[in-house]
Fold this sequence. Notes:
Helix content of chain A is about 45%, strand content about 20%. Chain A is an alpha/beta fold. Chain A folds into two domains: about 5-225 and about 405-415, Aldehyde Dehydrogenase, Chain A, domain 1; about 235-385, 3-Layer(aba) Sandwich (Aldehyde Dehydrogenase, Chain A, domain 2), CATH 3.40.309.10. In chain A, strand 3, helix 6 and strand 4 (about 145-150) form a beta-alpha-beta unit. Chain A starts with a helix and ends with a strand. Chains A and B meet through helix 1, strand 2, helix 10, helix 14 and strand 13 of A and helix 1, strand 2, helix 10, helix 14 and strand 13 of B. Strand 16 (about 410-420) of chain A pairs parallel with strand 13 of chain B.
Amino acid sequence: MNAFNVNEHMQALGLQAKAAAAQMARADAAIKNKALKALARRLREAGPELAEANARDIDRAVAAGLSAPMVDRLKLTPKVLATVAEGCEQLAAMPDVIGEIIGMKQMPSGIRVGQMRVPLGVFGMIFESRPNVTIEAASLAIKSGNAAILRGGSEAIESNKALALLVSESLAEVGLPVDAVQLVQTTDREAVGRLIAMPEYVDVIIPRGGKGLIERISREAKVPVIKHLDGNCHVFVDDTADIDMALKIVDNAKTQKYSPCNAAEGLLVTEAVAPKFLPRIGQVFATKGVEMRCDAAAGAIVRGAGLAAVDAVESDWSEEYLAAVISIKVVKDVDEAIAHINRYSSHHTDAIVTRDHVHAQRFLREVDSASVMVNTSTRFADGFEFGLGAEIGISTDKFHARGPVGIEGLTSLKYVVLGQGEVRS
Amino acid sequence: MNAFNVNEHMQALGLQAKAAAAQMARADAAIKNKALKALARRLREAGPELAEANARDIDRAVAAGLSAPMVDRLKLTPKVLATVAEGCEQLAAMPDVIGEIIGMKQMPSGIRVGQMRVPLGVFGMIFESRPNVTIEAASLAIKSGNAAILRGGSEAIESNKALALLVSESLAEVGLPVDAVQLVQTTDREAVGRLIAMPEYVDVIIPRGGKGLIERISREAKVPVIKHLDGNCHVFVDDTADIDMALKIVDNAKTQKYSPCNAAEGLLVTEAVAPKFLPRIGQVFATKGVEMRCDAAAGAIVRGAGLAAVDAVESDWSEEYLAAVISIKVVKDVDEAIAHINRYSSHHTDAIVTRDHVHAQRFLREVDSASVMVNTSTRFADGFEFGLGAEIGISTDKFHARGPVGIEGLTSLKYVVLGQGEVRS
């Protein structure tokens, strides 16, 4: 497919999405939920076409020499399909936020002013490998009353096309516009460049993937991007921390899973508490095979307890390991902890363990991160744990949505004004 | 000043603003309010330096042959100074929204999750001519706990420098960082290019000025822009409208002032009501010298009533006249009215006059504009009339802030999570 055709294709998708978005914005909650349930049913009852499409992608990936984990991520097993089907049903069961009116108040002029929640319009989602994201994105679009243009990874193109067909059939079944969810039909990279530069059709871009992809998209996009870069999360153990609680929290934040963005990558401990705390958490880490990259003071204590420590270098303070590695630093007090976090953290999630009310309040207010926590694990920074019902992503930006983003991140609030003939004097 | 120096200057402003922003975010409401009152006092008591600086700008403008209205906009009369001083005092009297916590709820895991309102960090404001905007922007920065970098018009540079000095003195007087509000010291245009492309220091740009300036900044900015383009606002008179009410509203929306962005530029009337309504509103417009640019049906009725009408051309439906001109179109029904508005309006403010509940609800929900109104004048779309206390601008975007933007538009919500040792299982 040449560049000219890609342009035409993207233009057509944009126009159709825009038209569908207007219809989706008007759609009743009941109809949208019916479409979600139909999609869940079609996923569960999917015929051989889907399995065959998926097999073609897998064969191609194996032939291309992709690593086993990369090939695994492509697989639409019955378990994966059941999980995304369940996700659709959960969305269907959630209350609909579109059309809600908040803060309606009467003004001195007599007019009543409030805000109505409405869909943003059209979102573009750009993602890599896992084809199940096609269904996640489609179901979010349906529930939120937006239209979506989806661009999946080239390695999953056959699976994505087969899944997108199930979405179209579900939309058609309930009388919603099939263009509400469209898949980019080409693997040409030029299509991404067009998708992120069509402000006339696309209201927001949501990239999912590696940091490189997200940085490139953010740099080149002509529309807003709900972006999640890295998660360099910290736990700070304060002077007055309950040591047993701190052990449990730091252990959980680091070792419960290594790969999530809300896992802790840095541990800060005050001078006063370090001699008591570091030998104990060091023992836990040593047992679990977690490498400790320590500043001089922390290293001395860890080694003094007969455990292995690696000398941290400057780059350790900024790194998102996503692995069995943690940086450890002894700090003088809460001031130094807050300063360190604000300098090195990725503004994702940071926690303090303390009994000191003033320190807790200062940490909450002054740490400039999307989620700030007292006496609990950074691993809770998640749309479902925060009660959002669905998670579009986690935003490390401050503009529009910040932190875990639910359906509301795909909406905007417009002012509604009700009068009885009032005019401005 | 050469390009190299401009870069260094902007870099220094950015670094200093970032450092000041952290201090401003921590500042108590009482201190910020004290700074605002000190600024009001200094504006009222301003010595000859300010008047002399302003006189130099005016002399230069006159010598350069600027038009009389342009020269007038530069003048810092005692009345202008009293008005901005009063604005500072009004902001000081407003409740402080920084640090408020909303929606705190306990989750099944035991953690409590809410959101805290915090400043965005650093905003850049770019404005033309009127030097009083320096004070408006400075006072918004102080109240909202942000730092600001201000870039005023070159024609007002001397006045802006003198005003910025009063701001610095007020900040210093109460112990707030003087770098919280900084004025770009050069009139080199390169400085604007740098200001809008420093995501490492600047969180959001607020341009105030002509559409050309705002379009250019939006296109080139590497950070989010709170932008207000044009206001092509409509009033739609529905079948069931109370004719006297419709007359009052349409008259007010069009003629109370011609220059504001929330003045009506288009009138839509249903076929059924046009023969009754158009002769009467036409009489009002004719008396006030408002030119009527009509489609064929409207033109026939207006001319039939013995009044002058101009034939509208396609471009009339999109135009923001900001003058004694209105476009008039007869539509079949509420569907055609909504479709026309969604196609041609600038998504600023649109109103329906009706007694029909279903039509009112559909108009509110389906018209894709920042402010949608029933039975009242578009002229009410304003931060003060909406009870926001202060107005940063009116956003025609959907992302982050939409419609009139108050102090909250300069803030973000971060998640706060309170635990008692809970961990993720």
